[in-house]
């Protein structure tokens, strides 16, 4: 198995099914973890030097921080309802607790924080929905924590790619500190596949091909993108979801397309 794939496992004692830390990924910014909770289960944590965005992938929950509390948040019972989620932003130097009111799936996205912003609820109405691409590159985007919303480091988006389509396409990268043209951003892809036994394909490659991997991705896998271009394909019959967590030294999404494929930006494919 590729070292870029972190597979989901059965829930451990803490209810975690997949976990990425800067140490395990051998990078400096992004952390990511998913919990599967039964009704009544709780997770809690001090944020320390990290800012956190908790994404309620499915189910209903109560959430609280040191100063704030939100009861009975949730809207979708399954990721593939394709409606925006609830999320909670928590700054560094704070703490959080999430209590599941139903079976729930919770993603916890982390990156270095400065304590600049207060904890807040991100409701579905706050999540901008975009359709990106056309033809076989059409996909649905939910901007959970985009660049124009306050945070110190984190950028978070979820993407729905219909079966037979491509996304993160044409291939692009964000692995150089070369502003205003390109920003260095580490990225995780948390993949879910609607149909049982399905799969997706993801390629991660650099111009010099020192990194050049094409991976078979299964439901629940996380793919690490430390550098390079990273297109994704959803095979016919298998609808794909992924949650992206990005962070780097400057909080801006500036990227470079693969010059070999940039011509497709003007085409319907």
From TrEMBL:
Transmembrane annotation, as ranges: none
Domain of life: Bacteria
Database matches in Pfam families: KduI
The keyword Isomerase is assigned to this record: yes
GO MF term (any one): 5-deoxy-D-glucuronate isomerase activity
Coiled coil: none
Keyword presence, Secreted: no
E.C. number: 5.3.1.30
Keywords of the record: Isomerase
InterPro entries cross-referenced by the UniProt entry: Deoxy-glucuronate_isom_IolB, KduI/IolB_isomerase, RmlC-like_jellyroll, RmlC_Cupin_sf
Listed NCBIfam families: myo_inos_iolB
Designated name of the protein: 5-deoxy-glucuronate isomerase
UniProt organism field: Brevibacillus ruminantium
Chain's gene name: iolB
């Amino acid at each position: 198995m590729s070292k870029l794939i972190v597979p989901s496992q059965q829930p451990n004692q803490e209810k975690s099914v997949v976990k990425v830390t800067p140490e395990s990924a051998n990078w400096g910014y992004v952390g990511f973890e998913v919990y599967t909770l039964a009704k009544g289960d709780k997770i809690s944590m001090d944020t320390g030097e990290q800012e956190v965005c908790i994404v309620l992938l499915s189910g209903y929950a109560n959430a609280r921080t040191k100063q704030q509390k939100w009861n009975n948040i949730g809207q979708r019972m399954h990721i593939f309802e394709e409606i925006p989620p609830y999320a909670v932003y928590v700054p560094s130097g704070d703490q959080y607790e999430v209590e599941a009111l139903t079976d729930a799936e919770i993603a916890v996205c982390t990156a270095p924080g400065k304590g600049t912003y207060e904890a807040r609820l991100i409701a579905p109405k706050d999540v901008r929905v975009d359709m990106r691409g056309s033809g076989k590159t059409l996909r649905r985007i939910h901007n959970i924590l985009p660049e124009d919303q306050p945070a110190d480091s984190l950028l978070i988006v979820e993407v729905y790619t219909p079966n037979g389509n491509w996304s993160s396409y044409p291939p692009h990268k964000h692995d150089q500190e070369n502003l205003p043209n390109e920003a260095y951003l580490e990225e995780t892809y948390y993949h879910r596949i609607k149909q049982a036994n399905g799969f997706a394909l993801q390629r991660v490659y650099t111009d010099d091909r020192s990194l050049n991997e094409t991976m078979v991705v299964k439901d629940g896998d996380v793919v690490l993108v430390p550098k390079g271009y990273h297109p994704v394909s959803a095979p016919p019959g298998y609808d794909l979801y992924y949650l992206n967590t990005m962070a780097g030294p400057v909080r801006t999404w500036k990227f470079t397309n693969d010059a070999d494929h940039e011509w497709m930006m003007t085409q319907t494919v």
